[in-house]
Amino acid sequence: MPKVLIADKMSEQAAEVFRARGVEVDVVTGLKPEELKQRIGGYDGIAVRSASKVTAEIIAASSLKVIGRAGIGVDNIDVEAATQRGIVVMNTPGGNSVTTAEHTLALLMSLARQIPAADRSTQAGKWEKSRFMGVELTGKVLGIIGCGNIGAIVAERAIGLRMRVIAYDPFLSPDRAQDLAVDKVSLDDLLARADFITLHVPLTDQTRGILNAESLAKTKRGVRVINCARGGLVVEQDLKAAIESGQVAGAALDVFTEEPARDNPLFGMDQIVATPHLGAATTEAQEKVALGIAEQMSDYLLTGAVRNALNMPSLTAEESARLGPYMKLANQLGSFAGQLTRSGLKGVCIEYEGQVAALNCRPLTQMALAGLLAPILDSVNMVNAPVLARERNIDVTEMKHERDCGYQTLIRLTVTTERGPRSVAGTLFGGTKPRIVEIKDIAVEAELGPHMLYISNADQPGLIGDLGRTLGDAGVNIATFHLGRTAPGSDAIALLEIDEALPLEVLERVRGLAHIKQATLLNF
Predict the structure, then answer these.
(1) Could you tell me how far CA 223 lies from the centroid of its own chain?
(2) What residues make up the domain containing 254?
(3) Which CATH number does the domain housing residue 11 bear?
């Protein structure tokens, strides 16, 4: 039974979901880093919110298969370290979308009407009615930077308030923009036209500091800024200077570069509305993300289904079951090529033809890579294989073909080494049984067993007899024997399944036989 640790406070129903699904769960919150490091070794999964830091050191001390974040941001998880160790990292991006969008609108209205400052003034016994002159939202232009799940909800609500909405998002398609009734624009166009700007993008190298002195100088004078996404998107000192100069009329911020934000250059300014990262702080949202992460982690641990993962493609339980035989075939092809590779890998191309080309092939490519790299590297799986390949400058190409390949389905893996390209192809018999059907452009039909002997030789009489006699004298039983050749008297290959591992001295005798160019033991 898989075992999961819930390390942060979240809805009690999360633990109930784990148990109902057949996953053992412990709820231990408030652990210090050293305590978490000492405890984590016994768990397959850990579920956190934002309090616990799943660092590289903690990851190294674990045998985790999955890390789940009940929420969107994974700043407290070392995703790179997890990926390196083949651990799936998943979050729940949809669970707090509505709540965060609603908080954005609450800040938008508070900023437009100076509600927090007016509240403080009134409760202090003042009656400064003329001091707090606001602006209407109707007819104003709202510029949305990042029009994904949350940005789209903000757009819909803002249109209901009779605002005009423009959006900057390189991934927003024209059709999607039309469906949302927003105008897709460039960033510079948004900065120049927007009366209000709201941010809804993740914090990446491309988005970090997207609102800085240079971009704020391009805005309409008197613009107002709302940020419920990530603090690092806004350069706070630049925002302060823009407010002091009057370029920016005010800002409403739920997130800050450093959190908890106890000391910030923007604090104390009348033009600032600040909340302590409340975007997801509703009862409904916390319930959704807790239940969501429990369901996702359970599905992965029990069925292999992957949803909302940051470091591998999504895979439903149905897809996982359907792709199972294909994934086994892809892994065998990769392993076959990897075990025969004796020089530096430069590139790998995985081609899909027939029925498999219509499927979700990304997991198959990652599985093929895992098989290819496993004979060379330790602790390789489909999660970290692409990263390990990239680190070693191995060019990975995935191709799909509609041409007739002669089989209902075919996967061909071609590796390019310092010695040139070499390929191996396979199919499924009966839809479930992997078979090798081609090696180095030579047709051969073979089922791979635990112990295989691969031989490359010149096609000459007597070889089969010499080989059988050598193995027989050593007491090695041949389970299956598959042959292929390019032409009579030319290059040939033999692929034998044997009942047990071949002793090294016997392998050397095989290699010494006439006409044999290569003899390699393979394990599957």
Answers:
(1) 36
(2) 97-274
(3) 3.40.50.720
Say how far apart CA 85 and CA 60 lie, in whole Å: 8
pTM of the entire predicted model: 0.65
Among candidate residues 241, 256, 275, 280, the one with its CA nearest the CA of residue 116:
275
**Residue of 16, 259, 284, 508 marked catalytic:** 259
Question: In Å, how far from its chain's centre is CA 21?
Answer: 24
d(CA 271, CA 252): 8
Whether residue 230 lies in the annotated active site: yes
Question: Is the domain of 81 the same as that of 156?
Answer: no
| Cα-based distances in Å from 454 to 247, 363, 429, 506 | 73, 28, 22, 14
Active site residue 277: yes
Chain segment 432-482, per-residue pLDDT in tens: 899 999 999 999 999 999 999 999 999 899 989 999 999 999 999 999 999
Spell out the long-range contacts of 39-43 with Cβ–Cβ below 8 A and sequence spacing 24 or more. Answer: 39/5, 40/5, 40/64, 42/3, 43/3, 43/4, 43/5
Q: Provide the pLDDT for residue 430.
A: 85
- The span from the CA of 421 to the CA of 45, in Å, is 40
Q: Is residue 144 domain-shared with residue 231, that is, in the same domain?
A: yes
| DSSP bridge partners of 54 | 77
pLDDT tens-digit readout, 342-380: 767 889 999 999 999 999 899 999 999 999 998 877 678
Q: Both 69 and 129 in a single domain?
A: no
Are 347 and 464 part of one and the same domain? yes
Q: Band the pLDDT of 277: cuts 50, 70, 90.
A: very high
Task: Considering the candidates 230, 307, 412, 451, report the single residue annotated as catalytic.
Answer: 230
Mean pLDDT of the chain: 93
Is the C-alpha dihedral spanning 300, 305, 307, 312 positive or negative? positive
Q: In this structure, what DSSP letter does residue 424 have? A: E
